[in-house]
Amino acid sequence: MNVDPANGLTFWAHHEYSINNSWRTWVQAFTPDFPVGDLDFDGQVGTTDLLVLLGSWGPCDDCNDCPADLDGDCAVGVKDLLTLLGNWG
Ligand SMILES: [Ca+2]
Ligand SMILES: [Ca+2]
User: Across the strands, what pairs with 22?
Assistant: First the structure.
């Protein structure tokens, strides 16, 4: 199984098997359903995610690598906090 480097969230599973004297390859992609604001990818939005968001508060150093910026405005602020709280649990 591999993680897609394009987004870091899609997993690719592959397997080769023999059938009727020939080899076949099976490939399947899937993306786990993490809630928005689940910054530690444990499947729930909770205290650890809140601490990560608060620790990232302010302008993002790298707009393309700022996971706590939930609305994509290149800063971690009130709107991101409200989104996280709205998905709490
Ligand atoms: Ca979490
Ligand atoms: Ca933001």
Answer: 19
Q: Provide the pLDDT for residue 32.
A: 77
Strands of the chain, DSSP E: 2-3, 11-19, 22-30, 58-59, 75-76
pLDDT surpassing 90 at residue 6: no
Domain count, the chain: 2
Which pLDDT belongs to residue 30? 85
Q: How far is the CA of 18 from the centre of ligand 1 (A)?
A: 40
Ligand 1 (ion): residues with CB under 5 Å are 38, 40, 42, 49
The model's pTM: 0.67
Structural domain span for residue 42: 35-89
Q: Residues 45, 69: one domain?
A: yes
